[in-house]
Amino acid sequence: MAIRDDLEVRLRQARKDRDERTKNLINGLKNKVLVALKSGSGVEDGDALWLDVIAKYSKQVKKAIPEFEKAGERGKDALEEAHFELEYCQQFLPSTLDEAGTEQLVRSLVAEHGISGPPQMGKLMGLLMKGHKDQLDGGLARQVAQRVLAE
User: Fold this and answer.
1) Which of 12, 15, 59, 110 is the most buried (most CB within 10 A)?
2) How far out from the chain centre does Cα 100 lie?
3) What class is the 3-90 domain?
4) What is the rounded CA–CA span in Å between residue 101 and residue 110?
């Protein structure tokens, strides 16, 4: 089932269940897709667009979580909402490698391409993102790459 169709079914169910959080999230994602379609960039409605929108939104939510945590008690509700939204969006995104898998990939690329030392960080990140972008969390990949190159 296409992502758009799946979300429509979930939206109807959320309306029946009076689940405001799910309704708001799905409607927000639909709005972002609509904006992308009307932007004039030539994108077409399909799973690729939906995945791109969901991935970008997830990234925004991940970046906001530390700010909500810093707010303490005042940010408690926003933090809870952010975790809900992130977990909901993760259902649609391809799974990424964990730290051990990322480290294994980084070490294999370092050995394969003869990369050594922190000055070649850009080359390593380029190789990682070029061939494995969908499999990696960019922030985690950077941390692991820095650690491996520092050895």
Assistant:
1) 110
2) 19
3) mainly alpha
4) 14
Higher pLDDT, 43 or 34: 34
Give the model's pLDDT for residue 15. Answer: 94
User: Which architecture, in CATH terms, is 99-150?
Assistant: Orthogonal Bundle (1.10)
Residue among 150, 151, 149 at smallest CA distance from 113: 149
Mean pLDDT for 111-129 is 86
- Give CA separation, 62 vs 11, 17, 41, 48, in Å: 23, 27, 26, 21
To the nearest whole percent, how much of the chain has pLDDT over 70? 100
66 vs 61: CA distance, rounded Å = 10
